[in-house]
């Protein structure tokens, strides 16, 4: 009952201090705890019970975290949904987890008028029914839950491109949270602007700082202007973002006129920090930097490099080390057989510890595949130096990291092949100054097929961040004798 316990303790210790802020309102720890209890009673009154799955479809706002905590108190599993997913993608996730309810913002819910038959409750945050939920509900006896109780299904993507549900328990949140806090040592006067979405493993960073009594400021979608204004308005001490967000902020005209002097630490992760962005940020912000390396399957942020360990910009050759694992977690580099390689030698980074997921939701085969002798495989290539720091040197060869979000070429290829005029397709990542990498599609198609036609087709089937910016038409996709696409030829030819 980690989430319930941290909420109750902070209510006792910091009752009148602000816990959460969004564009519409703020709530104190006392108000946060009271509303969570109301929601738990109200949702129970609607028939939501222990073990049920409840999807949440919303941009970042206070109600999202109120629902997460309320569902955890009930023993129901919250299932955050990426609000930018296309209609078929959302429906597929809801169906696979058997969600009994969908909660969220009305404009997002309206995009999905038809959902799988398991859904019997739809509630919009911005409607009177949700506001009244639990306010007149009779007290109900809520279960006492062990930390091994599943609390959430957080979705990521497997190498096949299909979203996989990562089942995590309260013990995972607690292990990562306590390990992180032991290293980062934030005080309870931290004000953190969270620029990252609350629908995947990155939300664990916010939960961790909430456990320390921090105030978390939520942004309903990132823009440089919103992020800069939030830092100034709330005198934020910390920010949590991906490097490309930092690049956009530094480029914004408002960055020169915004008072950012309150910042003590910028947390960044999900993609390597470009040396030029780091150098500019150090010069412009004058604060510390903390790298976050994590993976949803291992509980979120399990490795960090603190401000005191960051090199000076002039000393960064290619990439900044990721850092060391937090207490309680273990990581090492292994060869293909799972044998640990010597320090400094490149292998796949594998992880174990109490932060690990219970498994992929209803997918035992995929769960077995990701574990190697009890260690979770990250798919990242890197090495561990003599001081225990993890250095990443590459990712799984086909994965595209677009502004910190994983894009799988096979998913785009399948969507292209669903068009009747497409005969073959291959997708690779190409460098992009703004986003790090973007997908580029190579297509073999019938004569007369245009780029605009295919891009429109993809827009109906894929989230915006997954869509290629352009399509190149070719006569033949290069393949080896086994039929596998030789993507190196496409990358080299671009």
TrEMBL record:
Q: What is this protein called?
A: AMP-binding protein
Which top-rank group of organisms is this from? Bacteria
The AMP-binding enzyme C-terminal domain extends over: 411-484
Which segments constitute the AMP-dependent synthetase/ligase domain? 8-361
List the Pfam families hit by this protein, alphabetically. AMP-binding, AMP-binding_C
The cross-references to InterPro entries, in alphabetical order and at most eight, read: AMP-bd_C, AMP-bd_C_sf, AMP-dep_synth/lig_dom, ANL_N_sf, ATP-dep_AMP-bd_enzyme
The protein's matches in Gene3D superfamilies, at most eight in alphabetical order, are given as:
3.30.300.30, N-terminal domain of ligase-like (3.40.50.12780)
């Amino acid at each position: 009952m980690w989430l319930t316990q941290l909420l109750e303790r902070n209510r006792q210790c910091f009752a009148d201090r602000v816990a959460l802020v969004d564009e519409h309102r703020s709530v104190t720890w006392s108000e946060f705890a009271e509303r969570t209890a109301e929601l738990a009673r109200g949702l129970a009154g609607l028939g939501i019970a222990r073990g049920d799955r409840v999807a949440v479809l919303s941009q970042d706002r206070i109600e999202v975290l109120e629902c997460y905590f309320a569902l955890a108190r009930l023993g129901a599993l919250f299932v955050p949904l990426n609000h930018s997913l296309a209609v078929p993608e959302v429906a597929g996730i809801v169906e696979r987890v058997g969600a009994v309810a969908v909660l969220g913002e009305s404009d997002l819910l309206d995009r999905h008028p038809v959902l799988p038959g398991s859904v019997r409750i739809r509630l919009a945050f911005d409607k009177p029914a949700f506001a009244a939920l639990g306010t007149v509900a009779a007290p109900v006896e809520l279960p006492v839950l062990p930390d091994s109780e599943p609390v959430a299904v957080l979705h990521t993507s497997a190498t096949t491109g299909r979203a996989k549900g990562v089942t995590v328990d309260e013990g995972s949140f607690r292990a990562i949270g306590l390990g992180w806090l032991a290293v980062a040592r934030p005080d309870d006067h931290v004000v953190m602007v969270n620029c990252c979405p609350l629908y995947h493993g990155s939300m664990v960073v916010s939960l961790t700082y909430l456990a320390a009594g921090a105030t978390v400021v939520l942004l309903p979608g990132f823009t440089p202007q919103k992020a800069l204004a939030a830092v100034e308005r709330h005198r934020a001490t910390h920010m949590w973002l991906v490097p490309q967000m930092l690049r956009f902020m530094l480029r914004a005209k408002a960055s020169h006129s915004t008072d950012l002097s309150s910042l003590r630490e910028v947390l960044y992760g999900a993609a390597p920090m470009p040396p030029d962005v780091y150098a500019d940020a150090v010069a412009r912000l004058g604060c510390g930097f903390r790298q976050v390396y994590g993976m949803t399957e291992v509980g979120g942020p399990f490795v960090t490099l603190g401000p005191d360990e960051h090199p000076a910009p002039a000393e960064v050759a290619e990439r900044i080390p990721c850092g060391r694992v937090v207490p309680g977690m273990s990581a090492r580099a292994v060869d293909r057989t799972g044998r640990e390689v010597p320090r400094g030698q490149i292998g796949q980074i594998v992880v174990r510890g109490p932060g690990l997921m219970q498994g992929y939701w209803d997918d035992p085969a995929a769960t077995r595949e990701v574990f190697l002798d009890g260690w979770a495989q990250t798919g990242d290539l890197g090495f561990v130096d003599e001081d225990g720091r993890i250095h990443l040197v590459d990712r799984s060869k086909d994965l595209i990291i677009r502004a910190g979000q994983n894009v799988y070429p096979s998913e785009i290829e399948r969507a292209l092949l669903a068009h009747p005029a497409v005969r073959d397709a291959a997708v690779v990542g190409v460098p992009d100054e703004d986003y790090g990498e973007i997908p580029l599609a190579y297509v073999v198609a019938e004569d007369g097929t245009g780029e605009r036609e295919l891009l429109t087709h993809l827009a109906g089937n894929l989230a915006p961040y997954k869509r290629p910016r352009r399509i190149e038409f070719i006569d033949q996709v290069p393949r080896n004798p086994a039929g596998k696409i030789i993507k190196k030829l496409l990358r080299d030819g671009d």
